[in-house]
Amino acid sequence: MNPPGPPGTAPAAGIARVPLAAAGVLLAGAYIAVALGAILLSRESGKIAILWYANAMAVVFFQFRPSRDWAVLTGALAVAVMAVNAFTGKDFGLSLVFLLGNGFEVLLGAALLRRFCSPAASLQEVCALLKVLLLGGVVPPFFSALIAAAALSAGGGDDFLAIWLIWFEGSALGMVALLPLGMLLLVRGWRSVSQEVSRPEVVLGLVLVSAVAGWAPQWVEHPYIYVSTSLVLLAAIGHMAGAASAVLLVSIIVGILTAKGAFGPVADTDAFGEALFYLPLILTLVPPVLLAASLERVRRTLRRLAESEEDFRILYNETPAMMQAVDPQGKLVSVSEAWCRRLGYCAEEVIGQRPSEFMTAESRERALEEIWPRLLREGRIDGAELQMRTRSGAPVDVRISAIRQRSLDGGLLRTLAVLTDVTEEKRLAEQMTYLAHHDALTGLPNRMRFEDGIQHACVHGHRHHDRFAVLYMDLDQFKHINDTLGHGVGDELLKAVAQRLNATLRDSDMVSRLGGDEFVMLAKNLCSREDAGAIARKLVKRVAQPVLVGDATINVSISLGIAVFPDDGKTPAALITHADQAMYRAKRNGRNQFCFFSEAAPEGDAPAQA
């Protein structure tokens, strides 16, 4: 398992994966090489600060490893510091001073970065990168320089402030030059950084920066202006990888030029002038990496916006809901693919049109006079129902929910709407409503619908003194037909009888199937009982005609009973019961006829004949 790095970092290949002992050897070897290289780059005369990258490298190295490994790494660091001093001829006492100062600087910088800084954030946030440079590149050299200056000035009588400035400036410059690249490697790894740096435009930019850094100090009066300009340009095109690499490269080039004496006239001023020699370089190196971090944040923001826009576009186009956006002038500016697919248009045809152009006349009027004004007034509408039309003219029922979107200055920017196709939902609802009030076999109103109708007829009759009749019917010998010819033939017979009954209706009448072979009719607007008799006579005669079902010709008839409001009953229950009783009298009297209900008539009285 890879050792965990600091929060916000990705595991780095190489350093993070090697065994601890190998990591210690690697740290010691790298520290010795970098330190000796910095010493070779420094001037032998004068008091110009050594460009000290070794501590910065060690601080970054520590970040690759978990805190539990730091004790071993510290031991490796101590060996490396003592070895460097031995190679350069320092005595043991002086070596201990350098060990104390360098060791303290590395441990303090590593601890501050681990505790307070996010390497990932430092690559794309100016404040986070400034915190890295401050806590890792300024604070540790500040205090380590105090330790070293105190020890060295106390023993040899050298100037404390000059020693402190030389130590601080050399270490701070090394930290500033190396930490941005170190954080980049820590977060993205060697492979990603090398791929970024190897881009042609970045390589060209690094060549240009190197040329400017090598030329300007020798030929112009204010070289760092030119160097800074080239670094800023590279930061703009090379991102953080290019800027961090260029900053380190420029510091190395300036160190080489210093070692060759290119800055001789400037360096030969006084002790403090020599000590502060690299301060302008530090101020030159910091702004480009800050700019790169700022641009990384901008690029990240733009990338996220582009990704969000793409996600929204995909969601907008691929969602199964119909979606549309309308500008302040009430014209379509975008529609989803589902919108186009359902209505049969392509987007190019509808953009710039008004949504009302694709509505039925009634919905168009309602949308313009009610829904659109309410949306502008209240800011949203939910569940308003409209009816659109497809290209072929077919109606599409939709339920629309919309919001009003305002611009930063408070003006209307657009309205966004989601239209849910409820055509099938409404069809099923209408079908369920129809089935709830109609007989599934014959399509006639069912018992519920009839009871509702007779209830209203009674209320109206009492109020307006109207006369109406209930005609109760039953097919004669229907059980025999079912038993001999089958239920399928029986069902077809019921359908045929229902059609004949329905054909005799007046506009004000209603005929219902109560169940089985029982039918009932509500005949309104009667002037007398004789009007009901005329209707009954017509029904008996119409039904009695032979019915052809398949290959079978069936002779059928009905028995019918009549109850008239208010003579034979004043409530729905009484009228239905009395009409049923009259129907049974008709059956007992020979079928294929009708009878009026009469409480006074003896059971054996002859009924009126059809």
How would you describe what is shown here?
The chain has 22 helices and twelve strands. By secondary structure, the chain is α+β, with helices and mostly antiparallel strands. The protein folds into three domains: 288 residues, no CATH class; 103 residues, PAS domain (Beta-Lactamase, 2-Layer Sandwich); 159 residues, Reverse transcriptase/Diguanylate cyclase domain (Alpha-Beta Plaits), CATH 3.30.70.270. Helix 22 links the parallel strand 11 and strand 12. Helix 7 runs antiparallel to helix 8 and helix 8 runs parallel beside helix 13. The radius of gyration is 49 Å and the shape is rod-shaped.
Record the SSE blueprint.
Elements: H1 20-41, H2 54-63, H3 70-87, H4 92-116, H5 119-122, H6 126-137, H7 139-156, H8 160-197, H9 200-219, H10 223-259, H11 264-267, H12 271-275, H13 279-318, E1 322-326, E2 332-335, H14 337-343, H15 347-350, H16 361-378, E3 380-389, E4 395-406, E5 412-421, H17 423-437, H18 447-464, E6 467-475, H19 478-485, H20 487-503, E7 510-515, E8 518-526, H21 529-543, E9 547-549, E10 552-554, E11 558-565, H22 572-588, E12 593-596
Parallel strand pairs: 11-12
Antiparallel strand pairs: 1-2, 1-5, 3-4, 4-5, 6-8, 6-11, 7-8, 9-10
Helix pairs in contact: 1-2, 1-3, 2-4, 2-8, 3-4, 4-6, 4-7, 6-8, 7-8, 8-10, 8-13, 9-10, 10-13, 19-20
Protein name: Diguanylate cyclase
Main location: membrane
Subcellular location: Cell membrane
